[in-house]
Design goal:
- The structure holds two protein chains of two kinds.
- Chain A is of the alpha+beta class.
- Chain A has 19 helices and 27 strands.
- In chain A, helix 16 packs across helix 18.
- Chain B has a five-stranded mixed sheet, sandwiched between helices.
- In chain B, helix 2 crosses helix 5.
- Classes of the chains: A alpha+beta, B alpha+beta.
- At the A-B interface, helix 1, helix 3, helix 16 and strand 27 of A face helix 2, helix 3, helix 4, helix 5 and strand 6 of B.
């Protein structure tokens, strides 16, 4: 082992240290977007569309402008630049010619206080010509369907891939000879599964404060998943160079993918520029439901075949997702759903095809799991159906077909690290070993399993490390902590590599003016990607320390060792110098300030064109694979259809647990968010396209009494060879297994197979009735 | 929109605070916007999420559902009034030490609900803890570590969901 290049040297990695900012959060001092208040700050309010689909015919704002205290008004008439958006540039911060969902912003006002801004909204008149709304996948694909985006063919797209009509994107992955392989199968199961729109329900809604200086340069204080993304998006939408836009992250009260982008940043910045005063725009809970993003509803037809001995030979999958009014993340979410649809199994012949469509509802976007929860609900439910048809235990069937190290993922990417079998065995054995929990009176108990894979990686990131005068370290990354503990994790990786206590590492908040680039806090990528950058940059800093120490101590570099509390010594003898002595030498005598940085873009292998035919996958390579398995005990009330999750075991490979407590928190929280997806959470629109579940009273996320007291995280460590300290991500996988594991437990308890999420009491009863009728 | 302002005198965290605000001003708006006590959070403004929980006359209340003018002379304690002479209170320290804090937006509300619980019952059972927290939503944690923090504070033995730490799968 090469001492100098090994990142982990100290005690900081593997310790469940309290969050660096925990005291701030516990005491109410942590500042979130709505806590920012600046001198002269105006308050913004949004006028939103009452129509799901309509043409804007006329706008009248003179009366609103005349109200005292109104300082700026924005409508689509003020916007003439190119459209914005993600892969397909199809949207505008406020609607221009058409509105495409109820709640779409059509005007914004900045005024001296919120009440004045509201009065101004009431004075704005917008004339609409209503059009027929398209509210479902079937309506979007029907012959002669109204077209949401007549100009789709002219839109700028960073990846081509749309079809005609209302189809945003089409893609496919094909391996092997699926049709021939089905002919060799003894048992084939087939079914269609449907999933709903889930909202992220971060406890802090989206919001920002946009400030402006005398030169017109804009600074946003923003709750977000990337200051660099906010900066880029706002610059594009305002037609400013990025140098004129600065984004600073506030504390973020949860993100889960739902803060990856928002048009309100540009609206606030536009109003601030127009009014030449700071503008606060924080969404109400209802507006956040109406205008942000959801998880994609999906319809998944899936067919799987196996030999009598349990060898799974073939799978055929067709996924259609409902992307809502604007493309946003629909292309990559669809592609990732396809990629995950094989599941973590050795299946030689797989065909996955899909399309995403436009409808007149809230745009769907990224949400923890990114297409995987939909695909895995269908695929893992079907594995249990296949096991039943084969007469094989569902865990045994999974173990038999599980991927192993050295296998390839769907698409042909080699997988170096895979502990899926251990994950399955651990949850199975833990459940068996647990003291039996009495079944609730009148209920039926079921035990369900699900296995899953996910990816952590993607795109570019960087870290910068500097030595300060007293030997302390200044660490800086662009990774915004959404609450998962990224700040503490980065500091632990850095401190560990220098054998320093974490208190000696200062961590900079994210600021687009000074933070090294980071794509986003998303894709379970922070610990893997930014953590890698931190580890490499810190090791380079250590090399610089050793250069100085070798000269100061007049010895060879190879004779040096790192000692605790910021010292470099000569092996075998007490001679040593402190980081402080090195810092002072570098700053005042020789060498110059010690500062290192490391940046990279995900550099792992991509798809293998010799193995897989990949069409429009929206990405070339993704990241390293992670594996996990869930087991749940569920009690079902056959009289009411109510489902109670009583206990859960969730085993996940994290490569290496930098902060085990944070890993456990991610697993438990992810499981519960997945349980909400499974049982209660559903955004619903009425026949006019109005969202009827836009409050926390109507949209039910799990409360404490809905949750099992026991959610056992099982954190497995199989160090990833591509990461200096072996770590992989755990942010998303923990959500993925919950819904299929619960569905499989309901099936075991009652015999009824549910094909739709959420599995509400009504649907459970319907499934029980259908089962009764079929007997 | 009514703009007529009324004057009220509130007792917040042991201090008399003057408020001149329109009648529909909620206690939460008064705390956050007029008194700059931003620790109480606006998570839903509908009385569902519990992030704005404060103590009024020693009992938990949702500041978003109460008009400031209705508080009268009843003492209000917010998250800013919770810390004791040692800095954080025992409830706060337990949440920090147990890793129960993630994004932190719900945390002030949980602190207030637990502060109320422990003031009534220093040794609550797990069921009492869960019931006391049933009006607070958390989207990050799955609630497990929050309950563990409270159980530790209550001196209860470590529950069956006590973590066992990560396990190496190789070597």
């Amino acid at each position: 082992m090469d001492d100098a290049r090994t990142a982990s040297r100290g005690p900081a990695i593997g310790a469940s240290l309290p969050r660096l900012e925990a005291d701030d959060k516990a005491s109410g001092r942590a500042r979130y977007a709505d806590d920012v208040r600046l001198p002269g700050m105006l308050h913004a309010a949004l006028l939103t569309s009452p129509h799901a689909h309509a043409r804007i015919v006329a706008r009248r704002v003179a009366a609103a402008r005349a109200i005292p205290g109104v300082k700026a008004i924005l409508t689509g008439a003020d916007l003439t630049g190119p459209l914005g958006g993600g892969i397909v540039k199809d949207e505008s911060m406020v609607a221009r010619d058409k509105v495409r969902y109820v709640g779409e912003p059509v005007a914004a006002v900045a005024a001296v206080d919120a009440a004045t801004a509201q009065r101004a909204l009431e004075a704005i008149e917008i004339d609409y010509e209503p059009l027929v709304p398209v509210l479902s996948i079937d309506e979007a694909l029907a012959p002669g369907a109204p077209i949401l985006h007549e100009g789709f063919g002219r839109y700028v797209k960073t990846i081509e891939g749309g079809g005609g009509g209302n189809v945003v994107f089409e893609s496919s992955i094909i391996e092997g000879d699926v049709d021939r392989a089905f002919g060799e199968c003894d048992v084939v199961v087939e079914g269609t599964f449907e999933t709903q729109a889930q909202h992220h329900v971060y406890l802090e809604t989206n919001g920002c404060v946009a400030d402006v200086d005398a030169s017109g340069r804009i600074t946003l204080h923003v709750t977000c998943q990337s200051v660099h993304h906010v900066q880029q998006r706002v610059a594009e939408e305002l037609g400013e160079p990025m140098a004129r836009i600065r984004a600073i992250a506030t504390r973020v009260g949860g993100g889960f993918g739902g803060k990856h982008a928002s048009g309100i940043h540009s609206i606030a910045a536009w109003l601030a520029r127009a009014a030449r005063r700071p503008v606060k725009l924080v969404l109400s809970r209802m507006q956040d439901f109406e205008i942000q993003r959801s998880r994609h509803p999906a319809r998944i037809w899936i067919r799987t075949g196996a030999r009598r001995d349990g060898t799974i030979l073939a799978r055929d999958v067709r996924i259609t997702t409902d992307g809502g009014a604007y493309a946003d993340e629909s292309p990559p979410v669809l592609a990732f759903a396809l990629l995950m649809s094989r599941g973590p199994y050795r299946i030689a012949h797989v065909r996955a095809t899909g399309r995403a469509v436009y409808t007149n509802k809230l745009r769907a976007g990224s949400f923890r799991g990114f297409g995987n929860p939909q695909a895995s609900f269908a695929a893992e439910s079907q594995i249990d159906e296949l096991a039943a048809a084969l007469g094989i235990d569902p865990v045994a069937l999974r173990l038999q077909n599980a991927m192993r190290p050295g296998d390839t993922a769907f698409g042909g990417q080699p997988v170096a690290s895979c502990v899926l079998q251990a994950c399955l065995e651990r949850v199975r054995d833990a459940q068996r070993a647990a003291p039996p929990l009495p079944v609730l009176p009148g209920r039926r108990r079921g035990i369900g399993f699900a296995a899953m894979s996910h990816v952590s990686g993607l795109m570019g990131t960087a870290a910068a490390v500097q030595l300060r005068t007293d030997g302390s370290i200044a660490l800086s990354t662009g990774c915004v902590d959404l609450g998962q503990g990224a700040d503490t994790t980065m500091v632990q990786i850095c401190a560990d590599a220098l054998a320093l206590p974490v208190e000696r590492v200062g961590y900079a908040p994210q600021d687009s003016d000074s933070s090294p680039y980071n794509w986003k806090t998303a894709g379970s990528r922070s610990t893997y990607m930014t953590g890698r950058a931190v580890a490499v940059a810190t090791v380079e800093l250590r090399d610089r320390l050793f250069d100085h120490a070798a000269e100061l101590l007049e010895c060879a570099r190879a004779d040096l060792e790192l000692r605790p509390d910021g010292r470099v010594g000569v092996k075998g003898v007490p001679m040593e110098v402190s980081f402080k002595q090195i810092a002072l030498r570098s700053l005042f005598h020789a060498g110059g300030p010690i500062a290192t940085s490391h940046g990279f873009v995900f550099d792992g292998p991509g798809f293998d064109p010799k193995r897989a035919a990949v069409h429009q996958l929206a990405f070339a390579n993704l990241g390293v694979y992670t594996y996990g398995a869930h087991c749940v005990e569920v009690d079902v009330d056959p009289g009411t259809g109510a489902v109670s999750v009583r206990r859960a075991w969730c085993a996940h490979d994290v490569g290496r647990a930098i902060n085990p407590g944070s890993c456990e928190g991610q697993i438990q929280g992810g499981f519960v968010q997945g349980m909400g997806y499974a049982l209660t959470e559903a955004m619903q629109w009425n026949a006019e396209g109005w969202l009827v579940t836009a409050t926390l009273a109507d949209y039910k996320i799990p409360g404490i009494l809905d949750c099992p007291p026991e959610i056992h995280p099982i954190v497995l460590e199989d160090p990833d060879p591509t990461h200096p300290v072996g770590a992989k991500g755990i942010g998303e996988p923990s959500l993925v297994g919950a819904a299929p594991a619960i569905a499989n437990a309901i099936r075991q308890a009652t015999g009824a197979r549910l094909h739709r999420l959420p599995m509400t009491p009504e649907r459970v009863l319907d499934a029980l009735d259908a089962l009764e009728a079929s007997r | 929109m009514r703009t007529e302002r009324v004057h009220s005198l509130l007792q917040v965290n042991g201090e008399a605070r003057d408020l001149l605000a329109p009648v529909p001003t909620t206690l939460l708006e008064a705390l956050r916007d007029s008194f700059e006590l931003t620790g109480s959070k606006r998570g839903c403004n509908h009385g569902v999420c519990g992030a704005c929980t404060v103590l009024i006359d020693g009992r938990p209340a949702r500041a978003c559902l109460m008009l400031a003018v209705d508080v009268g002379d009843r003492p209000v304690v917010t998250i800013e009034g919770i810390a004791d002479a040692n800095g954080l209170s025992a409830v706060q320290r337990a949440l920090v030490a147990s890793g129960a804090i993630q994004c932190g937006f719900c945390t002030p509300g949980f602190v207030m609900s637990l502060t109320d619980l422990f003031s009534r019952d220093p040794r609550p059972s797990r069921e009492a803890i869960r019931t006391a927290l049933s009006g607070n939503l958390c989207r990050c944690s799955g609630y497990v570590k929050i309950v563990e923090a409270a159980e530790r504070l209550a001196g209860l033995p470590a529950g069956p969901s006590e973590p066992s730490g990560p396990e190496a799968t190789h070597g």
